[in-house]
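User: I'm putting together a teaching handout on how multi-component assemblies are represented. Below are the sequence lines for each component of a complex, exactly as they appear in our records. Could you produce the 3D structure of the whole assembly as structure tokens, so the students can see both representations side by side? Please keep the chain order the same as the input.
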Amino acid sequence: MAGDKKLVEAITSRDEDFAQWYTDVVKKAELTGYTSVKGCMVIKPAGYAIWENIQKELDRRFKETGVENVYLPMFIPESLLQKEKDHVEGFAPEVAWVTQGGLNPLQERMCVRPTSETLFCDLYAKDIQSYRDLPKVYNQWCSVVRWEKTTRPFLRSREFLWQEGHTAHATAEEAEERTKQMLNIYADFCEEFLAIPVVRGRKTDKEKFAGAEATYTIESLMHDGKALQSGTSHNFGDGFAKAFGIQFTDRDNTLKYVHQTSWGMTTRMIGAIIMVHGDDSGLVLPPKVAPVQAVVIPIQMKKEGVLEAAEKVRDELAKAGIRVRLDDSDKSPGWKFSEQEMRGFPMRIELGPRDIASGQAVLVRRDTGEKTTVPIETIADAAKDLLEEIQKNLFEKAKAFRDAHIYEADDYKTFVKTADEKPGFIKAHWCGDPACEEKIKEDTTCTSRCIPFKGGEPKDGAVCVCCGRKAKHLVYWGKAY
Amino acid sequence: MAGDKKLVEAITSRDEDFAQWYTDVVKKAELTGYTSVKGCMVIKPAGYAIWENIQKELDRRFKETGVENVYLPMFIPESLLQKEKDHVEGFAPEVAWVTQGGLNPLQERMCVRPTSETLFCDLYAKDIQSYRDLPKVYNQWCSVVRWEKTTRPFLRSREFLWQEGHTAHATAEEAEERTKQMLNIYADFCEEFLAIPVVRGRKTDKEKFAGAEATYTIESLMHDGKALQSGTSHNFGDGFAKAFGIQFTDRDNTLKYVHQTSWGMTTRMIGAIIMVHGDDSGLVLPPKVAPVQAVVIPIQMKKEGVLEAAEKVRDELAKAGIRVRLDDSDKSPGWKFSEQEMRGFPMRIELGPRDIASGQAVLVRRDTGEKTTVPIETIADAAKDLLEEIQKNLFEKAKAFRDAHIYEADDYKTFVKTADEKPGFIKAHWCGDPACEEKIKEDTTCTSRCIPFKGGEPKDGAVCVCCGRKAKHLVYWGKAY
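Assistant: Of course. Below is the structure of the complete assembly, with chains in the same order as your input.
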């Protein structure tokens, strides 16, 4: 058949060359494409549909907590970017500068937003006067630009999509509560929706966001044992408020500075889905985030009654709320099986003349390859149950993998050896001195991923794995994307 | 009460100073805000929620016709922008240029996309090889930048939000069909969802899009009698395909150029909603696009049972699928009434102790101010019916207004006098010569809005209103935003 010309080609083995495997999957599952714009990706329909599902679910979870969406300009005048000292130092080296508008050079150059703290502050300084104007819990969905030197689709590109929440509060306590609340939303979203287990914790001072008092993070583990920072939430205290003059008259009639937070999650999570769940046949999508949850593939499609039966199955599944697609193209069933596997659709339904005669269909799971024969009459229920089962299995599998790749190191020799030989997280005590972080990074390329919320307290008498001084924290270390 | 301090202030009368009225409504309904970024607006929660509803509904209608969403880079290298001659001439004078990335000057400057035809062509040239790869029916939701000198919120700003669809087809017929199909989606969306009547037609060569063979448009009439171009759909023929080398092998094994279209609708439509439906009390939102469709306002809230009854009413309405808000703040009922009117929520429900005692509530329509007393028991049904009624009434009112402001002119004197004295559309015959369009524009500031699909054929023996030569078309003329 004509369709077979374009057979699904084999991809690099995941365990042989993880980086090449990733590139192959991204390309062959048609998630991204390239244009002449160096370092920027095209997100194609199969990739963007995943992002739309991420957006929809995150946005719903945000709105349940009172978040309101807004849109702010994509440009930041240089003087505005420079108002907060730490922040400008963090971002100025990696922004793109607009110097001409229309036919005239600009009087003041502007960068394309790398993040929008400064713009939100500019707005809040105008809009907040009284305690009645608080809290402000704004979020925007947009793209941002950071002029990276080396880029990879979803993981690091000069432009990427994200949401950035920016809030202002009357008290430090409320800001801290919101910072944690949003981090927990990210964590629950990752675990429940993307089936990706995460470690929740706090960044060290060295790793925290430019201008933040505290940065909370969720860290996940990819199949190659590298860590991926998957979502961050920052508490700014009143630092930005002082730099931008964001003051309000409180109930007690005194003038106070607001306390602020920001938090973001990006298209990088599509990279995480690939690297946590994918296998040698391609992408594996957790059912909840999959744009297509089931593909119906008719066998011997031209025989009488086959296509009609397949259409009926599709309609039954659609009615039950399953995102289903019928592949009635003239490609061979074998090609269609490979395509379903490459694109990571959680389940396919094979339906041939003999199945139909016996009132049955075959469900094939993408995660395990397991086949089940089920009565067509109750196929929608069976498919729903199976999708739940797949979602659960993917999370458990990822969690078991992650847990099996968490190591401990009590002395530096063990740390270095583990970092060298065993990809994964290393739990090790730390004195709190950035010099030790720097040395560990130089010796092993490991960075501190986080001080976990659970278990971040040092054990009695524990010492820093690097310098041997008294430990302040237990830290997750890892090589990171 | 404390809330009364910030009483809803009066706005300029709509008929006295339309431009100032518009500015007042945008500001007092809190649709937009300002930052230090000149010419760019902040879309605040009340404005952005309208855009979210527009997006959701348009996106649904798009997807029903097979549209797939993607995301392309926001930057266009100068050499890419220059590939299609007419296109670059149309846009180059009004783009913003990025000349530096990170700490280094760029080898080639890039503009921030004013529209993305060139990028989609760049992608299609890579991705389209065979008739099997067609059609491509892609769309993206994003922001674009055009360096305008004078700006107004929603109507004209240096950055605005929109969707831009870009398609590629095997035949000219299919491209033409898609161009018309999308224009009809815009037209139906405006009339059914935004309650804005439109004229569907074709742009003259002078007014068509830079690089297009044909531009179709929907034109609506604002309350001040000015026209607003509300959505456009372009047929590019194979012009871009030739400039970018987008060829495919057809079924007959010959190499052919694709035929392309593009189509867009923008945040400008929020401006249209304001200018078509608004009145001297502020914004008036058609129920279908209103983020809040009903506000429940308790009277004598502190009396026993009032707040509970109000909460029950809110819950009933929410259960019936109505977007409802309960205003239980400590502001006065009068303040709340004014606020509901200013923000354009279609209906308020007043509920006081006496109402509750008699098992009734008062529904007040935003569009007419009319009050109806209804039994609390059946309030959800009554509210639903009323919302439908308001939606219908707003469309009919706008249509009656529009129709009453369409004039005809058979000779130039009448045309000039009408243009001078009567704000609205002028229907007049035209010979097809751009010189006559130019003269009309110079003499009256009217531009050709469109050659309507219905009634665009000239009457027998009709002559051009400007030069007296034989007429080719009947044209809608108007002063435009």
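A couple of points students might notice: The CA atoms of residues 60 and 367 of chain A lie 28 Å apart. The two ends of chain A are 43 Å apart (CA to CA).
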